[in-house]
Amino acid sequence: xxxxxxxxxxLYLFKLPCAALAPYIEFFSETSLxxxxxxxxxxxxxxxxxxxxxxxxxINLGSPYQLKNGRHWQLIDETIDVLVLRNxxxxxxxxxxxxxxxxxxxxxxxxxxxxxxxxKIGSDIINLNxxxxxxxxxxxxxxxxxxxxxxxxxxxxxxxxTPMKSQIII
Length: 170
Hints:
- It is a single chain.
- By secondary structure, this protein is an alpha+beta fold.
- It has a single domain, classed as Jelly Rolls (Sandwich), CATH 2.60.120.10.
- Helix content is 28%, strand content 29%.
- The protein is built from 5 helices and 11 strands; from the N terminus they run βαββαβββββββαβαα.
- The strands form 2 sheets. A 6-stranded antiparallel beta sheet has the order 2-3-10-5-8-11. Strands 1-4-9-6-7 form a 5-stranded mixed beta sheet, with no helix packed on it.
- A hairpin with a 2-residue loop joins β6 and β7.
């Protein structure tokens, strides 16, 4: 098993959200296939993530992988994208050609954007289609760069936040 903390920065491209989303989203990231091939010399490796109580979306741009949230392993097909809370240790078995696009929210950020309490996620692995329509996800996956994916997502998230802010009663 490969325990990754600081080393994860070697395998992914990280981008910060726009200023309006900075209170809600910690970062966007995407696998760097070149860096993974350079730094990982095995056919399969495991990434172990500590509990952070931060909702995290993984959009699969590559091949199937295995995900363990708590005690149970689950196969995540290449067409499946997930939301997890990371309220316990999560492990992901990766292959060198895996390609994951990540959105890591701050605690409360998912609720601010989608109106969904993160406490309802618990230890579940939620299919992202429950939050974001499948046609939007397909469009996102077909874009050619991390910057294009971020731009499309930021537009979606900003559109979801604005109507919620206008409903605030003082």
